[in-house]
Amino acid sequence: MARWLSFCASYPRRISLLAGLILPLAFAPFQILPIFYLSYGLVFWLAWQARQSPKDLFILGWLFGFGQFFTGLLWMGEAFLVEAEHFLWALPFAITLLPAGLALFGGLAFYLWGQMVARFAMRRLLASLSLPLWLVLAAYLRSTVLTGLPWNLPAMGWGTWLYLAQATSFLGVHGLGLLALVSVAFLLAEQARLRWLSLALMVLVLLFGVARLHGGVRLEASDTMITVVQPNLAQREKWLPEKRDAHIEKTLQLTQLGLKYAPKTDLILWPETAIPALIDEGTGFGDRLRAALPAGLESRRQPPYILTGAVRRELGLQSAKFYNSAMLWSGDGHLLAKSDKHHLVPFGEYLPMQNWLEAIGLEQLVRLRGGYAYGPPHARLSAAGLPVLAPLICYEGIFPALSASPKGLSRPEALVNLTNDGWFGNWHGPHQHLAQVRLRAIEQGLPLVRSANTGISAVFDAHGRQLEALPLGEAGVFSLPLPTALPPTLYAGFGDSVFFALWLGLALAVMAARRRFSTHAL
Question: Annotated catalytic residue: which of 272, 349, 396, 413?
């Protein structure tokens, strides 16, 4: 061990970069938990060795972050290959500049941590326990600044494990991340008895998960039968005019197959932009829907509803606005309700400084002049005989606040995630997306239904248990009763206030311990 630590101390920057590069192996789909402890443990130890050099600390933190986001977000490069003739030139910039920018948050966290350790002359254990405070605060800022990107947060080291993830119902994703990083910090204690606290903390979180999953409210199936369709349309071919009819027919045939085995279906779910057309204009889609659905529904009083993703536009005097929408249709072909995506993807669905960048010839990946327009947050969709649904379009599902119910707004009975991860091929990105979306069910105590174009479509109950799923890259359909909701969780009621209370409590405890034991080695 001493020889290994000596080697790491000789090449701190390379080891920090390597620790970041391997960290995504702790996340979905790999879920190698020891990698989480090895990766963060190494960079925590390196930070302690470099604590007297603010410059070195910033570089260590930045390299660790760059490595993590480079390998963790490498799948994003697939999106630039969908229309390589237009966007291949941007691929090297996307897979390097984005990780470089996100890594600044980690670099700043290490720098500020070093300033605090130097000012208060902190001993090793307390310094290690204070580093998670800075890192999780940096992760929170990364989740909010410049529209935010809460992807592969520290919490995901624990959050991909169902029992450990139950703590998000109490603390939220950032609170879970803080506990996970504190457990890493305890491993660096010089006394063996203190290192056992790392295991004790994990066991406590596990016991909470066991109690919540097996000793709490028993979840039952509701009376609402749902059918989820995964058409698996190749993204490069999806919007080709000559393929449009074939795509629509494939989606309808899968729907009919699902209804054949579940004729009492109440609600059918199609993915984001499922039909490559402006389906709310004219009567063509409604007529086709009405003609397709009656087969096999003799036992029903009316055909089922369909909730689908679609593009819509609003025509103005001089221009049109386009929206990435969720639309609720009756089975007899009438549009009943709609909601528009609120949290759009930068450079994917719009360009920052849209007019200026378009003027120099740049385009967002959807290649829509002007980009998509924003809709309001916290939409609700429902109809007679249906539960109240909260639609989350694509990566809206990774933002906890969009799944919440602000004061004065009714709580939904289920979350619905309509997405199109077909942009990202069969890499680890769709698996990471699914793992993060599942946490919304646990946080809110609500079932979550997910329909994805190329996968992974799934249904989770209000505890985050996966009840059904379709694999990535396959066409298919499944049906099951919609699970019931739990009473609102603590996180649903108070949001990130619980996390900040935990953060402040740990910060005060560290400072109190520093004053009390300032003359003792920790």
Answer: 272
Considering 349, 394, 413, 443, which one is annotated as catalytic? Answer: 394
Same domain, 142 and 250: no
Per-residue pLDDT of the chain (522 residues; tens, 9 = 90+): 667 677 777 788 899 999 999 999 999 999 999 999 999 999 999 999 988 888 999 999 999 999 999 999 998 888 777 777 777 777 888 889 999 999 999 999 999 999 998 888 888 888 889 999 999 999 999 999 988 999 999 999 999 999 999 999 999 999 999 999 999 999 988 888 888 999 999 999 999 999 999 987 777 788 899 999 999 988 777 778 888 888 888 999 999 999 888 888 999 999 998 888 888 888 888 888 888 876 444 555 577 899 999 999 988 777 788 899 999 998 888 899 999 999 888 877 777 766 676 666 666 666 666 678 888 999 999 998 899 999 999 989 999 999 998 887 889 999 999 999 877 878 888 999 999 999 999 999 999 999 999 989 999 999 999 999 999 999 999 999 999 999 999 999 999 999 999 999 999 998 888 777 654 544
Task: Find tokens 């004061």 and name the residue.
Answer: 407
**Alpha-carbon 409 to chain mean position:** 23
Residue 302 and residue 443 in one domain: yes
360 occurs within a structural domain: no
468 catalytic per annotation:
no
Query: CB neighbours (10 Å) of residue 241?
Result: 8
**Same-domain status, 324 and 384:** yes
Domain that holds residue 463: 221-342+377-486
Which tokens go with 137? 């605060």
Do 48 and 183 fall into the same domain? yes
Q: Is residue 22 part of a domain?
A: yes
At 371, the amino acid letter reads G
Q: State which H helix or E strand residue 198 sits in.
A: helix 192-214
Return the CATH number at 305: 3.60.110.10
Beta strands in 184-230 (DSSP E): 221-230
Q: How far apart are the first and last CA of the chain?
A: 21
Phi/psi region, residue 419 (left: phi>0; alpha: psi -120 to 50; beta: rest), is beta
Please give the tally of structural domains in the chain. Answer: 2
Known active-site residue 250: no
Instruction: Single out the catalytic residue among 8, 341, 413, 443.
Output: 341
- Say yes or no: 388 and 510 in one domain: no
Are 274 and 163 in the same domain? no
Determine whether 396 is an active site residue.
no
Residue 67's nearest CA partner among 49, 33, 29, 40 is 40
- Asked whether residue 300 is assigned to any structural domain, the reply reads yes
What's the whole-model pTM score? Answer: 0.92
